[in-house]
Amino acid sequence: MSVNLPPLPEMHPVAGVRCAAVAAGVRKPGRRDLVLFELAPGSTAAAMFTRNRFCAAPVQLAKRHLETTAPRYLLINTGNANAGTGADGMAAALRCCSAAAELAGVELEAILPYSTGVIGEPLPSERIVAALPQAFAGLAADAWADAAHGILTTDTAAKGVSLRSDAGWVMTGISKGAGMIRPDMATMLAFIATDAAVSAPVLDALLKEAVEASFNRITVDGDTSTNDAVTLVATGAAGSPTITAVDSAQGRAFAAALEATCVQLAQAIVRDGEGATRFVTVRIEGARNRAEALAVAYAIAHSPLVKTALFAGDPNWGRLLAAIGRAGIDDLDVTGVDLFLDDVRIAVAGSVAPEYREADGARVMAQPEILIRAHLGRGDATETVWTTDLSYDYVKINAEYRS
Amino acid sequence: MSVNLPPLPEMHPVAGVRCAAVAAGVRKPGRRDLVLFELAPGSTAAAMFTRNRFCAAPVQLAKRHLETTAPRYLLINTGNANAGTGADGMAAALRCCSAAAELAGVELEAILPYSTGVIGEPLPSERIVAALPQAFAGLAADAWADAAHGILTTDTAAKGVSLRSDAGWVMTGISKGAGMIRPDMATMLAFIATDAAVSAPVLDALLKEAVEASFNRITVDGDTSTNDAVTLVATGAAGSPTITAVDSAQGRAFAAALEATCVQLAQAIVRDGEGATRFVTVRIEGARNRAEALAVAYAIAHSPLVKTALFAGDPNWGRLLAAIGRAGIDDLDVTGVDLFLDDVRIAVAGSVAPEYREADGARVMAQPEILIRAHLGRGDATETVWTTDLSYDYVKINAEYRS
Hints:
The structure is a homodimer.
Chain A: E1 17-22, E2 34-39, E3 44-49, H1 57-68, E4 73-80, H2 86-104, E5 111-118, H3 125-138, H4 144-150, E6 159-164, E7 170-176, E8 189-194, H5 200-212, E9 218-219, E10 229-234, H6 249-271, E11 279-287, H7 290-302, H8 304-312, H9 317-325, E12 338-341, E13 344-348, E14 351-352, H10 358-365, E15 369-375, E16 381-388, H11 392-399
Parallel strand pairs in A: 4-5, 8-10, 9-16, 11-15
Antiparallel strand pairs in A: 1-2, 2-4, 3-10, 6-7, 7-8, 11-16, 12-13, 12-15, 13-14
Helix pairs in contact in A: 1-2, 2-3, 5-6, 7-9
């Protein structure tokens, strides 16, 4: 199940980008599990990868290739993460890339590989190589919806965003993932393309900013996968002027569109979170700085006790205060802390609010979407994270995954 | 349910200590919910309290009293945590202490209060005050088992340790708690007494050491309660020579007994953890320092994905590697990491071990007690933590607690 996950919108083609999704039989036959993106020459690209030290072979290889040259093709397989696979895994990733490079007539480094799926099993690179000709033959500008489905693993639905800017360019993106790490299905991927023209340094800077405000603000279970990656491509094929400064009017418009796209794609992952029955926004205000606001937000968002109360629809504010109190702010004055569920004030100055009635809290907690808001009374910094509850189904999905 | 939780042993009386457990009707009638300890004059005491900033009124008061004078009485109620209760809560705690002080004919500061139970409800101090005469009348040297039962909340069984040293002194202790924080039942308490004579500074230093190796190495759900406290009392009534140095032979023997007692009491809390079906030891070896060993151990022990795999008995080593990889060691060389389940080597140099067979991992994971051991290949530091799995019952207990 999922929480208010929007259906895939009309996915506008992005000039200079074609894609295809085919069935390579990586793990199971008959399922589209190989996605290929083709990017026009002259495209700029930026990417951010998992910070997990056990990052997968394709992550290591994609990073290395990106340092060398601008990518022309993105090659994504599901069903196998090619992680924890050592030197053999790196060789398998290289085989896939070099087969694709040969078919495309480009250098090896122009291919970026992505894998998601079971950890620790050898990547059946021969199946991927065998399916490549069909993928190349199927490349089409209007296949974004196919690609959105093709990158899914145990997600319940495809996730996509597509918009047209006033400046004449299009931005279309897809994401997958249903936990920060899936059991063995390792995990979150997002691909965003635009036909705006954006210089590489600006693209890089804007992606960092947007990811910080979106993919780096979601959590289902606090785990970080070995394969997470977000990739942004700008083909420039729309013919609009090249954006060369973050702080220009065009740069700001692009940044806003990019952040909105990333936030929607990131929230879609939370809405489709494992066993999710609630979509929860945790906003911490009045912190001394953003780092402490974030620490408190994550203490709440990761607390199993808060998450089980959310599942139960129980306005158990003691658990919220306890999570705030253990978030690592050593000089927190609890008499400065106010706590709200949506519009309902639960606690004021660190104690239960005099006007608070359990029925008011229960009303908010019964909603599918809930805002938990705390004001720390220490300064002006604010941070927001998005998360889900912890349900029987979370345990079921993760306990039974391999059985 | 619980995992190999030992029954309460013979609880040796501690010369100079008497206790009683009576029913005050704090939350429910007919349940022993008020425990009183009497300590002989001249006893030394040391205590450690929760670091949660939202610490409860009794915690604040007990700290203050301890700074003033040596305690003569410990007064513990269950059913109500007197946390999140503001100035009224502090007044209620003071009322209980001052009634006890009057009955005992001691100064107010000689009473240390402890509360555990529901957060955010007013403490019914009048019921506690009314039950005090019965508690004083019931004080007995051989009532430790009653006290062990009297401090429980939603624990499934009483937890105690008792030993006689070669030097002629006794050490007896009790604990309660079944999660690092119970839903509203806030949480872990331990009381340990000895009739050894120990100087106050030595008692303090040894308690810190022992707690660091025991109560500070357990986790059920990563939450820290508002009421946690560990209290150690030495009456000196056994007549053995006063221990005045940590590094003396007597000091070391006492320290070893204290650590063993604390470890057993702490492990008992994990064995009785909410919904626990496994008792799991996580040992990290070969770390550069203890801090990073501990960070990795907790990353594993807190990972919902590791914990659900433990519940399922699934040797899902990808989740273990992923947890190690995200533990915050930025320069971790994954090719130095070996991983074991008990005696079974799962991964070597960061990849699956060539001799590893899934059946071997599954055999270990089917056990009620499991050792997860990782060697980081970075140095000589080792740390150990104890935890449980994440089961349907954990969600059930915490989701349904107030319904």
